[in-house]
Amino acid sequence: DQDAREAFRKSLMLNPGFVPTLEAYGKYALHERGDARVAECLFKELVAKNSSHPGALHSLGVALQMQGEHAEALTAWKKGVSVNPTDVACLVSYGGLQQSARRDLGGAELLYKSALALEPTHPVACSNYGVLLEELRGDYDAAEKLYRSALSSAPSDPVPLNHLAMLLQDARGDSQQAEELYRKALSYAPSYAPTLSNMAGFQYSVRGDADYAEKLYRRALSVDPADVGTLINYGSLLEEHRKDGYSAQKLFDAAMTIDPYTAKRYLEQQQGDQYQEGRSPRIVKEED
């Protein structure tokens, strides 16, 4: 790790601003070290030298989003789409952030359609657009078609597997197939937090197995401690089943600190008896 960083630094000292090194070091910082701040600096320098460099603006947006700079991430992806309208990664990420923040659902739909015109089975585009169709229009048939389209090209992708399982559970009432898909998703990606969380909700609400559900929620939070849906759902289990209001409130407070908009929406749904146990935030990111 230290050797890799020193190699990148020496390379930039010998040839400052060398685009291939900026790109490689930026991706290393972003994906291997999770150092979004360093990645941001490197990709900003790369974009300043060549704004049309493939993937540069998308990677910059990812680094900004990891730091909670959502407005700046939107700006980077919007510019990426304007520079290169066929940049599927920017189209999907731009749409995803528009959708998750409820800024412009119509605009998000157009972005997904543009991405899918270029890559009809793109897993993240299919998954996010399917969620939009479910939540905005209640069009479960179209959503299911999108999830299955994604799985036709990526059968082991946990994202569409997870979404299809939720749809079958909630809209089709097919608990057996839903559970099979949750288990299939976890067999491919045992540490994928959304599936762990949703499987926990399934076990609690459908199977009545609170102990197993709690175990799955804890696993999900060990992977992603900032998953708002998991925090709210686990808190609800503790409050409703364990009668542990103190621990539940700590989880609710943590969720409100991380993402007040999403947490408030979950809690309002819960109080209005519309809450569905086991639902983690469904919009997923397009990885670089």
From TrEMBL:
Annotated TPR repeat ranges: 54-87, 194-227
Keyword Electron transport applies: no
Domain of life: Eukaryota
Family annotation (SUPFAM superfamilies): TPR-like (SSF48452)
Protein name: UDP-N-acetylglucosamine--peptide N-acetylglucosaminyltransferase SPINDLY
One Pfam family cited in the UniProt record for this chain: TPR_8
Keywords noted in UniProt: TPR repeat
Keyword rRNA processing: no
TM segment ranges: none
Ranges annotated as biased composition (Basic and acidic residues): 279-288
Record InterPro entries: TMTC_O-mannosyl-trnsfr (IPR052943), TPR-like_helical_dom_sf (IPR011990), TPR_rpt (IPR019734)
Region (Disordered) residue spans: 268-288
Classification via Gene3D superfamilies: Tetratricopeptide repeat domain
